[in-house]
Design a protein that fits this description.
This protein is of the alpha+beta class. The chain has twelve helices and 39 strands.
Length: about 650
Amino acid sequence: MRPEDVYAVASAGDPRLSPDGRLVAYVVTRIDQEENAYRSAIWLAPVDGSEEPRQFSSGERRDLSPRWSPDGRWLAFVSTRDGEEEKAKGQLYVVPAHGGEARKLTSGDESVESIAWSPDSSRIAFARRVRDAAYDEEDDRKRAPRRFTRVFYKLDSVGWVGDRRRHLFVVGLDGGDERQLTQGDCENEDPAWSPDGSRLVFPSMRGERWDVDLVTRLYELEVDADGAEPRQLTPDDEEAYKPAFSPDGSLIAYHCSPHDHTSPHHGQIAVMQPDGSERRILTASLDRQCSPYPMLRDPVWDGGRIVFTVEDAGNVHVYAVAPDGSGEPGLLVGGEQSIGLWDVVDGVLVYAATTHTRPAELFVGEGRRLTSVTDDFASGRELVEVERFTATSADGTEVDAWLVRPAGFEEGKSYPTLLTIHGGPFTQYGTGFFDEVQVYSGAGYAVLFSNPRGGSGYTEAWGRAIRGPIDGGGSGWGGLDYEDLMGVVDSALEKFPFLDADRLGVLGGSYGGYMTSWIIGHTKRFKAALSERAVNSLTSMFGSSDVGWVFKDQFGGPMWGDMDAYLAMSPATYASEIETPVLVLHSENDLRCNIEQGELLFNLLRVMDKEVEMLRFPNESHELSRSGSPLHRVMRFDAMLEWFGRYLSPGS
């Protein structure tokens, strides 16, 4: 794979089954190289494979989130087809299930999210941001200053949210006025209808300190009662999200995790009575993350079971559990693959899944492939299979790791090797398609990646192993995770003699960028490094990030409680020890790890006459590598390969 092959990557996702389980609607996403834009269309396919899939919506821009009406007569979706392309907002449309002209139901200034049909198919609830009137002033010289009283006033890839709170709406199938259901300085999403159509249950952040804690709880609201106020259902000591009523309305299933001012915790599947009583967690025995990020949907009721997905050692699998807690959760679909979004109706399971050498396609049941969206991309390209191996850390802990050999690998040759590190830290590298390792392999590098302690996909104790250092019983960042990553390198060098110990590079983004900066401040074994969208100063991140203060729950206390601990755990503190040439790569609109984090490391190293360069991408967010401008994604790859090529000489 070459950098420019980014333009050819396509995928299938977000499958939704018709109420009778015969058809699946899904989204096909491609890149328009000429327009430097993403395109997505709704497609339909019979689940039994009796006919070829067919494109259902125009896909001229972005058609997303297909949702069938409960009576099966309509398909709702969100589309950006209306207005100037760069400014177009996602509006809600409906189209007859048999095809025809799509009818636009909304015309707001912000994009529609989280659409949900009422049980009688007459209305659709959705979420959308609501602008303060001053937001519409286009002339910055006339715009009034923004006044904020809450720290949650900006959000990466979204922008200012302090004067654009997200609220719930409802609109009739025949269009007409959109009625706003929630009000005030709060954040609301993911409405779920009660089976009788009288109430919505939804996650919301509200209360005196919601902006500080950033914890969602479930609330209910009478849809048609004038002046109705939301009523809290879940307790203060629990985070709750993605609710789903049982068909008879007797229970609500949802995702949850403890809110005890420590993190991380596994997400669990729970049920409760509609009034919030008799809460029961169903998945604790798995000791795995049951709320996979970022491909998370609500639990689905299917007959006498609840279906959900689970992270497990780099994979994402589908499980089911009895709502009464009478049995252990059971595996429905496993294997070496990463399952994304999915749906199930009357025992028929359709899911999007990806492997190391295949972007996402749709599958039915235990593995019958339904789509062929990625065939053109895969044909004619050498996508290298990935080898799982077990590494050993300094204390003897075993760590899951993977090796990608260089494309065109030849026995007897020695190859430069890149260690790439995932973000989070409470995430996992998975067994799904990862364009980065394929591009590095295509350029002549061997690639190592792994799941060190602190990540998800394993026991909760594994994820909490790097809590601290203030209070939390773990090593803090840069402790056991550092030892695990060095153990991966040492184990790989011992196991695979073709890896060149004298030509090692290290890179990562976000927390992976943090670890890259940390590593080169604590060892000189790497000949080149690339620190991307990194955290380099935990003290300044506390205030410059859109959500930086929440990490106090992982560090064991706030910055003012132990400034020395925050400084000791900040890579910038060790800049004087860095001898490795480093490329600092950052997006100028990154609100998660503000660009000042990259500027700090670059400035420190340059003033100290270290070998450093900085690459700044304009008009990009924290998500550059995943969903940024396709052209910028290609430029990024070109720059990365040029940088490592200077110092590691692939092909020599």
